[in-house]
Design brief:
- The complex is a heterodimer of chains A (322) and B (325).
- Chain A contains eleven helices and five strands.
- With 322 residues, chain A is an alpha/beta fold.
- Helices cover 39% and strands 20% of the residues of chain B.
- In chain B, strands 3-2-4-5-7-6-12 form a seven-stranded mixed β-sheet, with helices on both faces. A five-stranded mixed β-sheet of chain B has the order 9-11-10-13-14, with helices on both faces.
- In chain B, helix 3 packs parallel to helix 4 and helix 7 packs across helix 11.
- Chain B has eleven helices and 14 strands.
């Protein structure tokens, strides 16, 4: 699929933005500035960016507890994201949601959720809504290998297929739930094969190749827009950090550091950089500029988050009902 | 005014609301072709078609979640859970998603979702098809909870539920579906959080929910002959709850009985008793009593089910107790 130079540059920029954002979160979390839990997307950037680069502002995504990458890829504002994870009133959710519940309805981000598999039926509902309103919007549901065993995964694929809904189910198979490896949680190796049970196409993408993810999701998005129904795209990927910040030694309790370093060698950003240089799409200097720009954006996001006030305790009772 | 059944009142409300607003659609098991397990949605498929009257596979979590997603993105779904007993299969979507999204997202995102279901024993449907679990939903902040007790109330409350931009648990009673009452032809809205004194009295207050309202009124007639003048208060909604109407009544009578078909333990009676004891303690001339179902699963056999369901005799006995305690 032909992608313009501008778009390729943008895709690179967003992948770097995610990486810089998450690396910054590692730092501020370690220094105690961020309460609660952080589930980071380092190493998986190509999946969110490859998928979301197929979507318009009014298409929908539902996200997961590991949702910073999805939100940034869909156009989320890193200032408001950072402020939210600090618990500030200036955050996306006025500090009421935190990292796992970031949402921006204006740009189709239906929310991250802390319940594994909880967002999948919601994406199906958004697709149903689009179909009833006769728009050509699609809904992308992000979820992991762990979620593919949850009842909601099966109910959602079944409902989307029997009702012919424009959903793209994107499974980010990073080989582990928390500590339970995919091989200990299911008898199959390729989650994409489950698509056949629901009579929809199931494809596998190399989660470290943003263009492969882009292509596979593009097919699925087009099917949806043409009214041909849902699809499942399984992206083989890997999280470089532990399940959450605080998971000892980046997951050493359940995985080998050899395995981690093997995957780090396949860095999706490094691979894409190499591709852009060798194809003459961008020069070294361009890429450097992009990186510097992203570092600056993240610094500004932290400043914004730092400066913002905490919500007053009286606000606890607000926003229960509209 | 013509008399129609509670089920017919729901049917005509859904029909007329759907004619007015094309964002409203209905989703659930057997609600389309079959017309609903209690025939509440009979005929709607013929008028509105399969796009807006959606028969779902058996997948409560899936279709309740889909209802949430559709509500989040501009539609106004009315999703049916065939029995309240089946809400258990969708609890994450109801309690962790629909109830919490508006608050967790800092006040953006509206979820104009109505979850219609029914409570109640009396059809020998046994333990898993006869429960009255509405207290669970009162305990999940972010949900509104309505319990209409008559054909007139069910229509007006359903209009309000559908027009509300928040998720509403609309809890019907299966033993009320075929009861009749006067219902105006036109659409009207009964506000949430405003109860009604269904019978004025000066000696004691019975706060009753759902099918217990009718039983309280029946008991009141008999009690009048014993010289006990009962005031029956129907809160109509538990979230929001009309505390003022309950407190005003207790301040007048000094005695309170709460009648509800949920289990006694941690049921609605417990909550209302706590509120009244906090806010009207000095007005009480007797302890607060509760008529509720026993803390056992609903039994099957007819004499056991009869013993389970709180009835007029239970109410009368409790009212007498309020004068001897």
């Amino acid at each position: 699929m032909q992608i313009s130079k501008e778009k390729l540059a943008k895709m690179y920029e967003v992948m770097v933005k995610i990486r810089k954002f998450e690396e910054k979160v590692v730092d501020i979390f370690a220094r105690g500035f961020m309460p609660g839990l952080a589930h980071l997307y380092v190493g998986e950037e190509a999946v969110a960016v490859g998928a979301c680069s197929n979507l318009g502002r009014d298409d929908y995504i539902s996200s997961t507890h590991r949702g910073h990458g999805h939100c940034i890829a869909k156009g989320g504002d890193v200032k408001r994201m950072m402020a939210e994870i600090f618990g500030k009133k200036t955050g996306y959710c006025k500090g009421k949601g935190g990292s796992m519940h970031i949402a921006d309805l204006d740009i189709g981000i239906l929310g991250a959720t802390g319940i594994v598999g909880g967002g999948i039926p919601i994406a199906v509902g958004a697709a149903l809504s689009a179909k009833l309103r006769k728009t050509h919007q699609v809904a992308v549901s992000f979820f992991g290998d762990g979620a593919s065993n949850q009842g909601t995964f099966h109910e959602s694929l079944n409902l989307a297929s029997v009702k012919n809904l424009p959903v793209v189910f994107v499974c980010e198979n990073n080989l582990y739930a928390i500590s339970t490896s995919q091989s200990r949680a299911q008898a199959i190796k390729d989650i994409a094969t489950r698509a056949a049970s629901y009579n929809m196409p199931g494809t596998i993408a190399d989660g470290n190749d943003v263009l492969d993810v882009y292509d596979k999701v593009a097919e699925a998005v087009e099917r949806g827009r043409k009214g041909e129904g849902p699809s499942l795209v399984e992206c083989k990927t890997y999280r470089w950090r532990g399940h959450h910040e605080g998971d000892p030694k980046r997951g050493a309790r359940y995985r080998s550091m050899n395995e981690v370093s093997e995957w780090e060698k396949k860095c999706p950003i490094a691979a894409f950089k190499k591709h852009l240089l060798s194809e003459g799409v961008l020069k070294e200097a361009d890429l450097k500029l992009i990186e510097e720009k992203m570092v600056k954006e993240i610094e500004e996001a932290v400043e914004f988050a730092d400066e913002g006030p905490f919500p007053a305790s009286e606000e606890i009772l607000e926003d229960l009902f509209t | 005014m013509r008399k129609i059944t509670y089920a017919e009142a729901i049917n005509e409300t859904l029909r007329e609301m759907m004619r007015k607003d094309e964002r409203i659609f209905i989703m659930g098991e057997d609600i389309g072709r079959y017309g609903g397990i209690f025939q509440v949605t009979k005929g709607l498929l013929d008028e509105f078609g399969e796009e807006r009257i959606i028969d779902t596979p058996i997948s409560e979590a899936g279709f309740v979640g889909a209802g949430t997603g559709a509500a989040l993105t501009g539609m106004r779904p009315v999703v049916e859970l065939m029995f309240i007993d089946f809400t258990t299969l969708a609890m994450d979507q109801i309690v962790n998603q629909a109830a919490k999204i508006h608050y967790m997202f800092g006040g953006k995102a509206k979820i104009p979702l109505v979850l219609r279901t029914n409570i109640g024993a009396g059809r020998s449907a046994a333990a898993q098809h006869s429960q009255s679990l509405h207290a669970w939903f009162v305990h999940a902040p972010g949900l509104k909870v309505a319990l209409p007790s008559s054909p007139y109330d069910v229509k007006g409350l359903l209009v309000t539920a559908i027009e509300d931009d928040n998720p509403v648990m609309f809890i019907e009673h299966k033993m009320l579906y075929y009861t009749e009452g006067e219902v105006p032809d036109e659409l009207y809205s009964i506000p949430f959080g405003k109860g009604e004194v269904k019978r004025e009295g000066k000696d004691l207050t019975v706060v009753a929910l759902s099918s217990m309202v009718g039983k309280a009124l029946g008991a009141a007639e008999d009690l009048a002959r014993d010289g006990i003048d009962v005031e029956v208060v129907d809160p109509k909604t538990l979230v929001p709850l009309d505390e003022a109407i309950i407190l005003d009544s207790v301040k007048k009578t000094g005695r309170l009985l709460v009648a509800d078909e949920g289990h006694r333990r941690c049921g609605i009676g417990a909550e209302i008793a706590a509120i009244v004891s906090e806010k009207a303690f000095d007005y009480l001339d007797a302890p607060i009593l509760r008529v509720a179902s026993p803390d056992v699963p609903v039994p099957f056999s007819h004499p056991l089910e009869k013993a389970y369901i709180p009835d007029e005799e239970d109410i009368k006995r409790a009212c007498h107790e309020l004068f001897t305690k």
